[in-house]
Design brief:
globular, SH3 type barrels, alpha+beta
Amino acid sequence: MSKEPIQRSELLKTLLLWGGRLGNARLRELLGMKVTRVSQLISEFHNEHPGWMEWDSISRSYRATPAAYRSKLDASASLGQYLSLVGISHTQGESSNERTLWNAFPDLSVPPVRIFAQVTEAADLSRQLQINYRSMGNPKPHQRKISPHSVIRAGRRWHVRAFCSTRQEFRDFALGRIDSLKLLDMPSERTANEDLAWNTLLDVRLIAHPGLNQEQQDMIRFEYFSNTAARVERCRAAMVSYFIQDLRAATDPSKQLPPEFQLAVENMEDLRKWMFTV
């Protein structure tokens, strides 16, 4: 059986739940299809998910019903897909009032296209790369030979996870710090299966910062934890420092205080050996 119907169904589900409605004209614009094909897709989706949509004669589109939102949904993944489908605008330099989704700040983390493509190719082909790299410890371009296995956006930056022949260990390299690179006709020295920190999964237990008063803690629990006492997120050990930094969660609540820090990591002793020094 073709995977296309499943993919189309998931796409329509994403558009319906995050956008609140499905309309023929909007789907034609997003999918580049003709009226009859889009009508067929909507009809098939309606039959697959009875009770999820109701016709709105004013907007001439199908509106999502409460039943649709009771379905299981990978919120973070589907939101990313939704934004990639409909586009998101920056506030700088645009005066249109037709859009409602905006990105408040410019993205400073977009890597050079050629760098991104060649690093991804090396990872896909399991080949080594020779790179000229800059780091905080050695800010002048210097040569490294690496064996990439994954390209990741961690926080505000894109990284490649790779085995470094110079240091003889797996490390993260920021794509924006790669000065130049060359794909080598040599197989990867080490693979992802050998990367212990990459394959180790950790539970990060997040709580409201204990330095907040009770009402403030209750507000944080409402905002982030669905009114529960804490939230536990699974994270690769290699990425846990980036994850905690991006959340701006306190790792030492006695020194990292509100209002700068509103979240805290409760199980730091379980995570400490995987953290890098910032």
